[in-house]
Specification:
The chain has 106 residues and is mainly α. It is built from four helices and no strands. Helix 1 (2-23) crosses helix 3 (55-78) and helix 3 packs antiparallel against helix 4 (84-102). The longest helix is centred in the middle third of the chain and has 24 residues, at 55-78.
């Protein structure tokens, strides 16, 4: 259950990170409301995951999912550059997430 909560929290982090772009400084009502909801849900699920997953592991995986997902979204949907360095960095983040999961005591 904790790992499921953590993965969902990570995907919600992707949503709110992307949502921040569309709030235009929290001046747009609907994007702002959706972003704030995603933030709250993401933090709530992260806190549930941290009941049994070590804080360092949970936080690193949560931010890693969010960072990699936001970069991938930017490349696929917004036309941000997909150069070799960025792609290697995404692979390193994802590799780190896998390593943390494999070596986590929870």
């Amino acid at each position: 259950m904790a790992w499921t909560a953590l993965v969902i929290a990570g995907f919600l982090e992707i949503c709110w990170a992307i949502g921040l772009k569309y709030t235009e400084g929290f001046t747009k009502l609907i994007p702002s409301a959706l972003t704030i909801t995603a933030i709250a849900a993401s933090f709530w699920l992260l806190s549930i995951a941290m009941r049994s997953i070590p804080i360092g592991t949970a936080y690193a995986i949560w931010t890693g999912i969010g960072a990699a997902g936001a970069v991938i979204f930017g490349i696929l949907m917004v036309g941000e550059p997909a150069n070799v360095g960025r792609l290697i960095a995404i692979c390193m983040i994802l590799g780190g997430i896998v390593m943390l999961k494999l070596f986590s005591p929870a």
